[in-house]
Here is the input.
Amino acid sequence: MNILCIDDDAEYLLGLKLDLKKSYQITTAMTLAEGIDALKNDSCVDVVLLDIGLPDGSGIEGLSKIKTDFPNVDVVMVTAVKDPKFVVHAVRNGSSDYLVKPYAHEELVAILEKLAAVRTIRDRHDALVADLNPTDTKSRILGSSPAFRDLLSQAARLKGHNANVLILGESGTGKELLARYIHSIDDNASKRPFIAVNCAAIPEGLIESELFGHERGSFTGAIERKIGKFELANGGDIFLDEISTLKPDLQAKILRVLQEREIIRVGGNATIHTDFRVLAATNIDLAHQIESGQFRMDLYHRVRVVQLVIPPLRERKEDIPTLIAYFLEKYGKGIDSKKITGSALSKLQNYSWPGNIRELENVIHSLTILTPGSIIEEKHLPNWTMNGVGDTTKRAGTPAVPEMSAGASYKDFVNRAERTYIEHILTVCKGDKTRAAQEMNIGRTTLYAKLKELGLDA
Ligand SMILES: Nc1ncnc2c1ncn2[C@@H]1O[C@H](COP(=O)(O)OP(=O)(O)OP(=O)(O)O)[C@@H](O)[C@H]1O
Ligand SMILES: [Mg+2]
Here is the structure.
């Protein structure tokens, strides 16, 4: 836990630092203004120990300012005189607890431990609420083309079964949305957790503790116990996105969880039972990865009890008008939603959408902003959508194809070309990954996976 102590007594601050530095991260400030600055600059502060009489204002003013601007920070008021009126006032204004100077070290530690426990429960609760109910997916998943109807009816058959599902599809085809849909059609879906994990976006050093959780003190920085995603998913679904990016040692550990239905938190000894369905997704050919030894065949078979393949948008062009109408409504917010002319619509229908629905959504979003008036015509469309083919590289320009030494393998060449291309786009986008992903017409998660694969994520 990270503690900030605001007090104008230098000696007291020094003593406190010595007392707490073994178990906590502690920073200090001698005025209210300095303390607020420290909070602004360090988003990791969990608890503020706030003195009541400060040179530039009272602690009570400080309390309301901190609770307004940094609502997740717990404040413990520290006062020299025990005045019941003050205590009531402080608690009413959001202080978590109070201490009367001089206090015993144990008193302070007891308060900090209590706050740490409450914070753990709160984090766990927040994670559950955020993921629990992917509401309304049924009404948001659109498509009436035969190919898409077929897919949805296969998905509907999963209702009431606990079989693991592997979802395949190009970037932006709606893999995550489909996973949420599969979760939502089960009875009691709102009471069962849906825990999403993007395997590509979690830094390698953290992924184990994200998935399995950790005990307090199990490694530097493990200041509190953390409940892992596998434990949170108990009784529900875990969505393992970009599963192809998992390193071999983690694949082995995950396989064990799927077999044993048990986990052990990092740094812990207790075996914890957890039961969940896996919904996994990838846009990379796993069969190819198995062949090259990058993905375990046994894990693949465990995860792929049922396999669903989302067809790319260019193979279900019939769905494009419905999706466009939906996105126009969504981004027009119903008030000034724009209309599109038949010829503009047909241009968009004939474009090949290499970035699939995500690309379509981005284009419509930008058209609702940039088109003057209420009618979107052909002349308003971005020019790369006009020629019917999806040449996504035109916008940011393409770098020259890298030169290779004689004898380089096909794979070396492709890797090099990929790296050159990605580096080029990132430079053009000044390192902004969201924009770079848009330029490349791939999902952000796909870009993260690529950066990790190519070792560019440092
Ligand atoms: N059938 C659909 N109906 C309506 N919206 C959709 C549909 N499919 C996808 N979308 C929308 O398109 C966007 C991309 O979908 P999603 O994130 O599920 O794709 P993905 O396949 O997981 O992409 P990536 O591989 O890049 O992670 C989301 O905003 C989603 O809501
Ligand atoms: Mg995704």
About this structure: Residues 2-128 form a domain with the Rossmann fold fold (CATH 3.40.50.2300).
